[in-house]
# Entry
Amino acid sequence: MYLRDAACLFCLHPSSARLGLDKKQRPYLHCLTCGARAFLPVYECLHGLAILPALIEAWRETMSEDRQRAQLAAYLNDLRNRARSAATAPTVTADAALAAALEKVA
# Structure
């Protein structure tokens, strides 16, 4: 028996999980997006479920696509710089191969 829609604890989709009761009247969640099921041992576990949608929205705002792209670009630039500096060192050969591979990506 499903009671209401809820946020999934695993894939964090804001309304794909169905909160229900099993045959012993214990709460559980079943996500329609990722297929995960979570059986909650006591009703007190539902307190955290109530604040989950607000947390998901805050996470989405802080990890927008633009911010992720900027973080990824900075990480790749750092890798390229390290590979270039390693390529100038005469004893390191694995880093030189990495530098050549990163130059192809850029």
